[in-house]
Amino acid sequence: MPRYTLLTYALLAFGGLAHASQTIDVYRDPNCGCCKQWISHLRDQGFSINDHVESNMSAVKQRLGVAPRLASCHTGVIDGKFVEGHVPVEQVRQLAQRDDLAGIAVPGMPLGSPGMEMGGRKDRYQVIGVSRDGQDSVVAQY
Q1: How confident is the model at residue 81 (pLDDT cuts 50, 70, 90)?
Q2: CATH number belonging to the domain at 24-141, selected among 3.30.460.10, 3.40.47.10, 1.10.150.650, 3.40.30.10
Q3: For 113, which DSSP code?
């Protein structure tokens, strides 16, 4: 087997290339500090960010198909799927393998979620998957 192929497999196995080229569009209000912290969380994990500052986030969410019951302060889009709120990077990465989902969401702004770290306090929260036909399911709990 050629040497570069072995190196490629090794890097993929350790995550070096598997996530390096993922790009996410993030739509946020200009005055939101926790949105910037969530963006930093994604960057720290190897994501490239297209940061879109929006004056009307309700219109953005409606356009992207985010139901009001799932709303948070910012909305991401990756591979045509929405990522609503303070979703941990692990679920953002797993979304690519979930063809059954139109998107994922962490409704509200739970303390302790990525971008909402405030001391040692951590709220319990769920990551909700939304199927293409609009059905919700829990994909992770924290």
Answers
A1: very high
A2: 3.40.30.10
A3: S
